[in-house]
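To: structure desk
From: M.T.
Subject: fold request, one chain
Message: Could you run this one when you get a chance? Sequence is below, nothing fancy, just the single chain.
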Amino acid sequence: MVTYSYKALTAEGVETKGVIQAQDEFSAVNQIRQKCPVITSLTPVDKDKGKLQELLALDVGSPRIKTRALALMCSQFAITLKSGMPIGRAIEMIARQTEDKKLHKILIDASEDVQGGSTLTSSFEKYEEAFPVTFIETIRAGEVSGTLDNSFSKMHKYYENSARNSEKVRSALTYPIFVVCVAVIVLIVIMVKVIPTLAQVFSSLGGELPLMTRVMISSANFFSKWWMVMLIVVIALVIAWKIFTKTERGMIFEAKMQLEMPVLGKINILNGSAQFANTMSTMIGSGLTLNNAVSVTAKVIDNYLLQKDVERMIGKIEEGKQLGECMKVCEYFPDTLKDMCAVGEETGELDQTLEVIGDYFTTETDRRIQQAITMLEPTLLVIMALFAGFLVISIYLPMFTMYNLF
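Reply: Done. Structure tokens follow.
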């Protein structure tokens, strides 16, 4: 793609200028004339200058588009396409309205590609690191089946629910995380500043200190002396765990631990079931074949063991077996999900059945998370109360015996 700088006159005779990317001058002229009938100048942009502009415009952070921005964009596409607006013009209009800088740049490029004759799928595939696999595959299915507006409508609901659930979890975890952070800061201040000062005072007075005070002082001395070694050990353990969980054995171990942990294990199973049902509903409703829908869904599921269970279904489905029959061999998916998939196939309304059961598992996951956090908050308060009580008693016990030391 070559970048061109141009000046042109609109149909009303107003002079305008801008920058455009195209394969050659002929393609650039065609794109400009869709907006401005008269072109007064067209010059290629200097490559070094273009590279500098690209460097200055470089985005820092994750290349992924935020789920909330993706949901809003899908909603806008669904509305504009249902109104009969051409896809190229729709992309251009949505690009002007979006506030996300990464998404704005992608949509501008996609608009130029589509107006130059590319498909929407191929124009978005160039930025596959920015979009979930469900987004690309749903658009592909929508273009093939001619129901692109319906595909965007389904994706809007899918990503809107996903963003809402993520926000609920973040909101619910805010208080426990805040309490833990405050506790860590208080612990550091006490160990580094308070306890060494008290230790010097007590040692200068002489006498035998209470056991709790000696334990507290010894702990503070240990942490102040070996904190660097402990930090290195913790970092080394984290790195070792990351490397281990990149291996096949490590991924299986981590996934099994996630599914079998008390309280959290049930939440992870429900979350995996919700991901399966919601993604399958969106894929099938957008026109994907069953085996392709299962293939995409396998890439979306977070847990490795659940992901492998779904991947094993693909070959069986291609052999002609039904989804409900394939799911019976899955070890961790709930029986409710398996039975509802079988019922959906029998009634011929699999996508609608999956949508209903997906909403159920999403609601149940949210309820279990809230329940777990409700139990976590008083537990944290009790632990902090015990810790604070230990510190207070350790500090005040010697003070009560000070009078005997004078």
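Reply (cont.): Residues 148-205 form the longest helix (58 residues). Let me know if you need anything else for the meeting.
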